[in-house]
Specification:
Length: 688
Amino acid sequence: MANVATTQPEGTLVLLKRGNEGGYLYDNNGSVGIANQSGSVLAVITDEGKTMWIKDIVAGAATGAWVKGDINEDGTILTVELGQSIYHDTYTDEATGEEIEYDVLLGWSNSQIITGDDGSEALEVTRDEDVTKVEFSIDGDVLTMLGSQGATVIDASDHSCYEATGLGLYYSHNMETLGFINWNTTFTNEGPFEVLPVITEQPEGDLVLYNRSGNSLALVSGWWTYISSREQTGKVEVIYAPDGKTVYIKDITYDHAFNTWVKGELDEQGLIHIPAGQCIYWSDEYMGGVVLTMGNATASLYDSNFTSAAPLDDEIVFLVDGETLTLQGTSATINGLNYDVTGLTGFWSDDNSMMTSIDWNTTLTEVHISPAVPADPAVISWEDKGSENGNSRFNFTINMEDVDGNPLDADHVYYSIYTDDDQIFTFEASTYSSSGITEDMTEVPYSLQNWDLHPSAGYIFFYRTNADGYETFFNERIGIQVHYIVDGVKNSSNIVYWYRPIAVPAMPANPEVKDWYDSGSESGYSTFSFTINLQDVDGNPLVKENVFYSIYTDDDQIFTFTAERYGDSGVQEDMTLVPYIIQAMDLHPNTGYIYFYRTNAEGYETFFNERIGIQVHYIVDGIDNATDIVYWYLNGNPSAIDEVNDCKSVASVRYYNLAGQEMAQPEGITIQVTTYTDGSTRTAKVVK
């Protein structure tokens, strides 16, 4: 295996800028990418100018590796031996399970892009094993790779071939080439270069947390670019070193959190002096960084850029006043939408241009966090989309206060969700990874505000996990509990539940009975006519899916609709409570009639001899509100029991045909009018 040089060699560090005349080809997920070389790389000159080490010599394949080149005696040729490694790794052979080490090595290659008739592209690369070194001519500050060529176009009738020769890559274990090649590479030596140090590791000392306040002016890019003035918020970490003087501040600028520290010193007058010029961001790709300073900017909120002045001071100063740190030397003149601001900012090291924000009136106030008991959350609603793969939304309010009304620190607030049986809900990483959950958790940080989790806005989305059918996550209730965790101490609110509303069913209006018709034969049928009013007693409409009805016989016995007789009408099992929505064959409650059939084969017998009754039920969530049983009397007379109960007797009974003529006895379809002693009457149809 070749050795990869990943450590910067000792020597003079210089910056090499790539020339745009260089190009490279690369595989790009089934197509071929073509790009110009650009940017800069680092080089180290050693051995009194006889050796040059170049970092990331292959454009488009930055691995952080250094390759060695030798400079001839007259300083006109740089020779780089091929076969040097720029990357080392291992992989597992799927067939044998063997761990195989390999390197990616420099080689000299020929390549072409083949564009097929169907528009597909393929990059074909072959290594020229006879070429063992690559040479660069040195002409003053310019290094030019020799022997390469690229982008020679050969036309054909229906496709084109692009050919290139130059610096390529291949694998050490099987000598296969990578889909990569550089040609016409040039470097311009920009001279000695300094990589600015950045403090990324947390220094030793006592960590103190501060709340940030103040103002910031920032250049904001989106679908349009504009200037934004905003209040500073959030936390700032400050470390006081054991020597009692050294102070480190993390992410000192508001709009640019680089996760880096700057170093200052606390004097006897309570001032923290932070030397300007400290690097708070560095990019190896662009060979530049951001250095901290005080600066000046003028801007209008509707402008798309700053007008910035050069750095103003050699240091940044904070005044320490008890538990407060205040940035000194800032000012802002605001005239309508126009700003003239002096404050804390940064300048790019390569061109001295200003960073896209500037802070003023920055104040840091020490945070004191105690494990308070959070106030109970408030539940609002549950929205279920109602599909197998859909989502549901739980709406709530997390009160960012403790039980005494004091504010809570958002960084220490968590919440949990509970199901019907008080089982805690697990937010799985597989479902909520896009919201920042990297491992399954039951206590979710309030700070996760993305995609499906929006506790600050007051809602969370839940998704279906079942593939076989529709099933809600929460059937009866869903609960939320807030936790406040400080230094391992957890205090929790009560679990507050949202209950699925139980609808109180309305009282249905009584049905109306209309007629009873009997065919009068042993195998015949009878028809009961009625009207079910799909309204409640107040005239409001009923949901027909919740409407049912029952039929009652002479002795107030409930009638059973058997599956054997009424199966063709949708009755799949014997029932006494029939859904209104069954509308087929013999059951037509919507148009107001039902058929009854003979069951005896030995002689004629009706199902109902004196009366038939109907009762309507409205059932919601298991609660059944039912009407009175409303009867139709087959012979036009209530039973003797009914008459006694009514405390009145029959005065006369008279019969009329359908033409309205009075008859001595009923015959055929007859209208029977019964008059009672209290003067009331009852009219009924009689079939004889």
